[in-house]
Amino acid sequence: MSATGRRRSQWAVINILVIAYALFPVWWIIALSFKDPSTLTDGNFIPTEWTWENYRGIFQTSEFTRALINSIGIALISTVIAVVLGTMAAYAVARLRFPGKSLLIGMSLLIAMFPPISLVSPLFNIERIIGIFDTWTGLIIPYMTFSLPLAIYTLSAFFREIPWDLEKAAKVDGATPAQAFRLVIAPLAAPGVFTTAILVFIFCWNDFLFAISLTSTSAARTVPAAIAFFTGSSQFAQPTGSIAAAAVVITIPIIVFVLLFQRRIVAGLTSGAVKG
Amino acid sequence: MAEIVLEGITKRYPDGAVAVKDVNLRVEDGEFVILVGPSGCGKSTTLNMIAGLEDITEGTLLIDGQIVNDRTPRDRDIAMVFQSYALYPHMSVRDNMGFALRLAKVDKATIREKVEEAARILDLTDHLERKPANLSGGQRQRVAMGRAIVRNPKAFLMDEPLSNLDAKLRVQMRTQISRLQQRLGSTTVYVTHDQTEAMTLGDRVVVMRGGVVQQIGTPQHLYDQPENLFVAGFIGSPAMNFLHASVQDDRLHTSVGDFDLGDRLRRALERHDAPRDLIVGLRPEAFEDAALVDPARAGSGTAFNVDIDVVESLGSDVYAYFTEDEWQPTATSELAELAADSGTTDTGAGGHQIVTRLAAATRVREGSRAQLWVDTTKMHIFDPATGANLTLAEEPGPREG
Predict the structure, then answer these.
(1) What are the domain boundaries of chain B?
(2) Which residues of B touch A191 (CB under 8 A)?
(3) Most buried one in A19, A123, A145, B79, CB count within 10 A?
(4) Which CATH superfamily, name and number, covers B239-382?
């Protein structure tokens, strides 16, 4: 009894240390966001005077709200398209034999390996010429390019886990290929689809490089880029408090997104489909 | 229920490999036919072609008198039980069993009724709301069976449905499948690599090797009248013993002794213009402890002396093993494949073991010399070049097509 008690307390200590290590920066930014500009640099981890001033400030102008709408719209659209296309491509990669399959996988891996910074200038020029610079489309396309390989890789791993016999069984049971996919394969692949969706969403949501390079106005500027344009109340004031508040605000959708789909992600994949 | 007819069914893959070659088979209405053979013999491919899960390269497949070569599985009205059971893990047992009916747009009350009736037959009533993950292996197997029977299809196809069960459960389920098939009177094609399952379950057995049908017949017919070395060695447990032999002066020389040919064998060899070097096949029960042979039967066989290695007493019988050194298992491709299939090449045991089944009263002891007797009327003689059985009854069993 005492042995298990000691082990439990050991684990508790280790857990607390890890959680504290991970959450400390988060707490710091939250604390900063609630600090009054005058106490901003007082070095306290806990605000001496709590204020909503920073939050009120960022929502006062349309600059931040507009960026928030851009971020949500662009990230959601990119995620939906990448997951839908990725699901179809991954299914083909996992299930079918077709000429050029390894080439396709190789190419998508190649794209994922490209350093994005090397593509920024060409993309900037291309987008200006074809007229999608500083538009939602202009950001959605590069986001999809980089998130599709990720989606295909994650999803094809999930599809490979689903026994092929299930699909055969569905066919023999009288399902059309579309019904077999919709009623048998898709429900089983759901955890994979949600995992991929979250990864893609986070990637698009947090991107700074493309957002700052391929936008020039608030028409398509997303939050990470907009934060960079924050100014203090005067020329000499640092916008630290506003940046901290904006950082807290843009973290919330991600947390909501993950909490929402977490149950689907951890749901058992195919336990019990076959022997065992 | 319906009959299934395979006419010249061939499966050739795009890379040129032939998996199944010219299979001709008529499965009568209500018949239980087993496809058996070692792995890679094309039996599962044949079953998948009947199901419509693989394309037929050549030949015609008829179900219930209609050519179904180009029909999708859903239009063939057949049910299949998979080796892995392939239960849908996200559906309850009830939904698993009713899935086909749901797709066929049967109304809910009828689905409910049919599923519950099948559950009653298979003793699954208490488990209808559970998910496959929470069932034991045997229960999952029964759900897979239930999914097939609720549909009342034209035929059942079963792909090694018992091979994932432990040995004891397998024997129980074997009897249950047999009973179920009789009760439903369903046309069934059953694939297995286990010759015991084939012998005990089937009305007729189709032995396949390398994509080619070796012999079709009732289990007893295959056992008594194997047409070639492969069938002889594959059917029966323990397997038939093989010895090299040569004919000289009307006598058959083998490493365990010389045998009189007798009229039956001599005529058979003359009829086939047999070569001098032959392979002799003897089932374990063709042997007996020489001391226990009924004097009236003694004349139909020959006695010989051997050193017994191992004695296994089963109570009802005794298996006595001795080793014979002249054997070359790779002499023919059939025997090489049989040896590989039975795993004797992996055990690393030196020499060629001969298994004999003796009466329980035998006094044969391990490590001692004993006199055994062999019934030469039960001897099969094979041509090593072709593998053909030269000693088949003059009227060969009906070669069903």
Answers:
(1) 4-224, 239-382
(2) none
(3) B79
(4) Nucleic acid-binding proteins (2.40.50.140)
Please answer whether residues B301 and B374 qualify as being in contact, where contact means their C-beta atoms are separated by less than 8 angstroms.
yes
| Burial A189-217, CB ≥16 within 10 A → b, else e | bbbbbbbbbbbbbbbbbbbeebbbbbbee
Give per-residue pLDDT as tens, A98-149.
888 889 888 888 888 888 898 899 999 999 999 999 999 999 999 998 899 9
Q: Say yes or no for a CB contact (<8 Å) between A272 and B89.
A: yes
Q: List B190's β-bridge partners, or say none.
A: B34, B158
Structure tokens at A65: 């709200």
Strand order in the sheet with B241-248: B257-260, B251-254, B241-248, B277-282, B380-382
Answer yes or no: is the ipTM higher than 0.90.
no
What is each CA distance from A166 to A159, B93, B181, B392, in whole angstroms?
12, 15, 24, 45
Contact B85 A275 (CB under 8 A): yes
Chain A positions with Cβ closer than 8 Å to B: 163, 165-166, 168-176, 179, 183-184, 187-188, 268, 270-276
* Closest by CA position to B262, among listed B247, B274, B275: B247
Contact A272, B131 (CB under 8 A): yes
Q: For chain A, which residues make up each domain, given as ranges?
A: 62-266
Q: Is the pLDDT of residue B393 over 80?
A: no
Q: Indicate if the pLDDT at residue B331 is higher than 70.
A: no
Tell me the chain B residues in contact with residue A166 when contact means C-beta distances shorter than 8 Å: 86, 88
Q: Which residue has the higher pLDDT, A97 or B12?
A: B12
DSSP code, position B248: E
Band of residue A61 on the pLDDT scale cut at 50, 70, 90? confident
B74 closest CB neighbour out of A176, A183, A275: A176
In chain A, which residue's Cα lies nearest the Cα of B74? A174
For residue B204, give the nearest of B191, B219, B189 by alpha carbon. B219
Task: Tell me B1's DSSP state.
Answer: -
Tell which B residues from 153 to 192 touch A, by Cβ distance under 8 Å: 157, 164
User: Which residues of chain B does A97 touch, with a Cβ-Cβ cutoff of 8 Å?
Assistant: none
Assess contact for A210 and A221: CB atoms under 8 A: no
**Exposed (0-12), middle (13-18) or buried (19+): which is B396, by Cβ within 10 Å?**
exposed
A170 pLDDT above the threshold of 70: yes
User: To the nearest whole angstrom, how far is the Cα of A272 from the nearest Cα of chain B?
Assistant: 4
> What's the pLDDT score for residue A229?
84
- Restricting to B residues 30-69, those with a Cβ less than 8 Å away from any Cβ of A are 51-53
User: Closest-CA residue in chain B for A97?
Assistant: B14
Residues on chain B touching A171 (C-beta within 8 angstroms): 52-53, 72-74
Sequence-ordered strand ranges (E) for B261-339: 277-282, 287-289, 301-313, 317-324
Fold of B4-224: Rossmann fold (3.40.50)
CATH code of the domain occupying A62-266: 1.10.3720.10
Which of 80-139 (B) contact A at CB < 8 A? Answer: 80, 82-90, 99-100, 103-104, 131-135, 137
Q: Are A243 and A262 in contact (CB under 8 A)?
A: no
